Amino acid sequence: MNILSFLYGILVLGMLVSPISQAAESSPQQVYADASPAVVMVLGYGEAGSKGNGGTGLIIRSDGLVLTNAHVVVDETTGRPFPKVYAYLKPDRVTGNRKSDLARGFKASVLAYSDALDLALVRLENPPAPLPVLELSDSDRVRIGDRVMAIGHPEQGGLWTLTTGVVSAEFENFNDVRGKHVFQTEVGLNRGNSGGPLIDASGRVIGINTAIARLAADGLPITSISFSLKSNVARTWLKEQGTRVEMAAAPLESPASVAGAAGAAGGAGGKAAASGASKGAPTAQAPPPARPYSLDDLIRERSLAEADMENMIKEMRQKSRRR
Q1: Omega of the bond prior to 19 within 30 degrees of 0, cis?
Q2: Whether 118 is catalytic
Q3: Phi, then psi, of 231 in degrees rounded to 5
Q4: Which of 229, 233, 260 is nearest to 247 (CA)?
Q5: What is the pLDDT of residues 259-293, one digit of tens each?
Q6: Structure pTM?
Q7: 162 belongs to a structural domain
Q8: Is 218 a catalytic residue?
Q9: 303 is catalytic
Q10: Cis before residue 292, ω within 30 degrees of 0?
Q11: How many domains, the chain?
Q12: CATH code of the domain in which 196 resides
């Protein structure tokens, strides 16, 4: 009888505890609803019609500070930030119409970047405040098999797309870059996802989506291999820049252990990071009137539209002077 009572007590306790343990995780729908407003689209390009890069970023401070990949905003040919950088806030509802989906665009400037770590810090000019924010969590808590999600703008897909998967593996000093620690996941990433958040099932940012593997050396296709820079690496890098943002408590590595000092944007142009910087980053592209979209087309369209607007303003000023 005593044994039966004991077993019954364990059963009841298990029923009480299990909902509590499960409550820590949220549904993908809830994670997306909470996190997506703090995810932006980032475009960088040069003169009218010139090629550029594009990707995703996450707002890490309510006054418009955005974290993204360096290859999204740094021109590979010059090693310096693109002359023109724009960030687009998420609309209340994404429809696939680029005019309404990208109506909330703001000029931005690159404050710092690291080629080696593929990180960049961008500031929006005069955004509405306060903006929603995503906090960088402790990536050391992540385990192989944990469910994760990504929000971004994959080419040939929709803007602010949600993809899901699990953490498959992890690597230290990825591609022989000291301090560049990454997660490998099966989350579907494509060009346009670069710089976006990797989020765990509790809605915490535990990585920055950085790279994909698509073809083997012999040309055979590779599937479900994506890489995300661990959030603790980004936290340490931000600390090196003297950037104060809201972060969940977590042990940080010594700044000296992370490769890639930041290049200051502006002035002499600030050389990007340390030797061993990754090259050949995916080029940006953009969305046409309907899905799927092309990053290249979007960048071309936006840069030409801006040039037309500048010419119109110049003509109006010249006419007013003649009067």
Answers
A1: no
A2: yes
A3: -60, -30
A4: 233
A5: 444 444 433 333 333 333 333 333 333 333 345 56
A6: 0.76
A7: yes
A8: no
A9: no
A10: yes
A11: 2
A12: 2.40.10.10
